[in-house]
Every structure is written in structure tokens, then in C-alpha cells.
């Protein structure tokens, strides 16, 4: 387990400096170390990618690099489209 933690930490450090999400490498690393692909590797890789994106968003917001007023229409349209798509998929 310790080698997995070290590899993920090093990859996360490198990818954060490059501004990339690490799920494209986290998932194969978890799989190579014997974790189940569908129930452990993919969810954990995507979770770590989400944490990376969240920390970047918080940093950019604190540095006043986010145009909140400009992003509200796009965010609202995305939420509406997502809600309509999910309700369509659940009904059919």
C-alpha cells in the first residue's frame, strides 16, 4: 500500500505543477497494484481529480481570477441542461 501512496503523491505533485488532472495516470496505477478496476480504481482516480480541480478553483477564486458575473449565465445554462438530460434519462 505504501508504494501506491508514494506514486500517487509524486504524480499528484508533478501534475499539479503542470496544471493537469491525474486521473489518466491514477487509474492505471491503481489497477496495476491489484485494485478492482470498476469499484476502486476509476472512482478513486476521479475523486482525486475532483479534489485537484476544487483546490485550483479555490485558489483562482481567492486570487480574484474568476469572473463570477460572467460565469453565472453559463453555469445556469449547464445546470438546466444537466437537469433536463438526467430527468429524460431517468424517465425513458
Structural class: mainly alpha
Q: H/E series, N to C?
A: HHHH
User: What is the CA–CA distance across the termini?
Assistant: 43 Å
Number of continuous helical runs? 4
Rg calculated over all Cα atoms: 17 Å
Helix content: over 70%
Mean pLDDT: 84
Query: Main β-sheet: number of strands, strand sense, barrel status?
Result: none
Runs with pLDDT <50, length 5+?
none
* Share in β-strands: under 5%
Number of strands: 0
Instruction: Provide the number of structural domains.
Output: 1
Shape: flat
Quickly list its features.
single chain; about 90 residues; mainly alpha; flat
Brief summary of the model shown:
The protein has 92 residues and is mostly helical. The chain contains four helices and no strands. The model has no long low-confidence stretch (mean pLDDT 84).
Structure description:
By secondary structure, the protein is mainly α. It has one domain (2-66). 84% of the residues lie in helices and 0% in strands. The chain contains four helices and no strands. Helix 1 (2-18) runs antiparallel to helix 2 (23-32). The radius of gyration is 17 Å and the shape is flat. The mean pLDDT is 84.
Secondary-structure topology with pairs:
Elements: H1 2-18, H2 23-32, H3 37-62, H4 68-91
Amino acid at each position: 500500500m505504501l508504494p501506491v501512496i508514494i506514486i500517487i503523491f509524486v504524480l499528484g505533485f508533478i501534475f499539479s505543477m503542470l496544471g493537469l488532472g491525474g486521473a489518466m495516470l491514477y487509474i492505471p496505477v491503481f489497477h496495476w497494484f491489484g485494485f478492482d478496476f470498476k469499484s476502486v480504481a476509476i472512482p478513486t482516480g476521479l475523486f482525486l481529480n475532483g479534489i485537484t480541480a476544487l483546490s485550483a478553483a479555490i485558489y483562482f477564486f481567492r486570487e480574484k481570477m474568476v469572473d463570477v458575473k460572467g460565469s453565472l449565465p453559463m453555469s445556469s445554462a449547464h445546470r438546466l441542461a444537466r437537469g433536463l438530460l438526467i430527468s429524460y434519462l431517468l424517465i425513458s
